[in-house]
Amino acid sequence: MVDSHAHLTASQFDADRHEVIQRAIDAGVSFIINPATDVDDSARAIELAEKYPQVYACVGIHPHEAAKAGEGALERIEELSRHERVVAIGEIGLDYHYDFSPRDVQKRIFALQLDIARRRNLPVVIHTRESLPETISIVEDAAQRSPVWRAQNDSGSRYPAPRGVFHCFPGTVDDAWRVIDLGFAVSFPGILTFKNAGRPLEVARSISLEHFLLETDSPYMTPVPHRGERNEPARLGLVAEKLAELQRLSLEDVMRSTSYTAFRVFGVGSRGEPRITYTLRDALYINLTIRCNADCVFCDRKGDAIIKGHNLKIEREPTVEEVIREIGDPARYREIVFCGYGEPTIRLEEMKEVARWVKAHGGATRLNTDGHGNIINKRNIVPELVGLFDAVSVSLNSPDVRQYGELMRLDGERFFPEMVAFAQECVRLLPRTVMTVVDLDQVQMDRARRLVEEEIGAEFQVRPFF
């Protein structure tokens, strides 16, 4: 795990700082990001990061301290930001709850520190309390004035450049998507474990895991059941467990995905080696290929090709023997799913051979497909799947032919009817057929449901937009 926000330089840790860091390591925390509150605290954060390889520093002036930022303070922050152990500018932002600094001063210091981050090409750690609209507006202005800020190096990713994190995020689901579209992750400390958390729980349930970081905000925001005690990074697992519960994922999924997001935002840790099999919840997924006949607007196949922290950007396609060796005992999993960042039916013969082996060894199987296998293979392939697959999931994406083509960036007039015919044949011959639509505002969900349930006879599911 990565604790993306812990104030280890706070005076509350003066008596046992080393023990606190050791307890965090023992609890499975690999890295800790230490944000600063003023110039002196920024220097202390760097000193601590120099001493402990698990700790990285941020430098910045908190909105509470904005009025105290004397002449030369911002120049000093920019100078400190050049240290090799500094990974972000922060924590910076606006706080209209306490108003310890005049609001016009807060806004000016915030904007100037965003300028430092843009010049230094560093991410930012943002604090916002009772000030979210103005905070977002100032960040939007900074991003518009410097579109290359944190731009990815021609990775082709559909995600915006990773510009930082809104820590202890106070907004709605719509607010969260607004900052995500600006290139920001969101994070919550122990507040997720509070019974009266309200809005944070809604956001944590509704936004895809790819956009979250873990944090403790130590020594503050102590999670249940330790409320009233000093918080510390060793309790990060309690936040991770709650996020896993809200996301309906495993703890391992949350740890892996948030650690990758920390790598993407702060550059700590690693990307991980490409995988040909990967686990989500209690299922094993097979990444047979990253080739695809479609180029969906919501797919990151040509970019980072990361799913819940799993790197799927394989450089070569695996052999049947390699896949079987990685599966091991298929009965250990609820199901074996053929679903990578490509279209599995492109490798139809290999797919069938692996599925046949899985079924022979007591495993359940599912195929996730765009439904174009008949066009790809120039024949009706569904009869060949009988006895090999317990379920097929077909990406409908849209009930409208034109929109379908636009979303998948192919000839909708040709591929849409073929996809529907494929799904109908699956309904006729296979035990279970599901058709899915990505949760996008422009897609007519009621119309899609009627098409799937009433005309095709399959099950209908909405899958989250990543």
Give structural notes:
- The protein is α/β, with parallel strands linked by helices and 466 residues long.
- The chain has 2 domains: 2-266, TIM Barrel (Alpha-Beta Barrel); 277-463, TIM Barrel.
- It has helices at residues 17-26, 39-51, 73-80, 103-120, 132-145, 173-181, 199-206, 236-247, 251-266, 320-327, 348-360, 373-377, 382-385, 401-408, 412-429, 445-456; strands at residues 2-3, 31-34, 55-59, 86-95, 124-129, 164-166, 184-188, 212-214, 277-280, 283-286, 306-307, 310-311, 336-338, 365-369, 391-395, 433-438, 459-463.
- The strands form 3 sheets. It has an 8-stranded parallel sheet. A 7-stranded mixed sheet has the order 9-10-13-14-15-16-17. It has a two-stranded antiparallel ribbon with strand order 11-12.
- The protein is elongated and about 75 Å long.
- The relative contact order is 0.08.
- The model has no long low-confidence stretch (mean pLDDT 95).
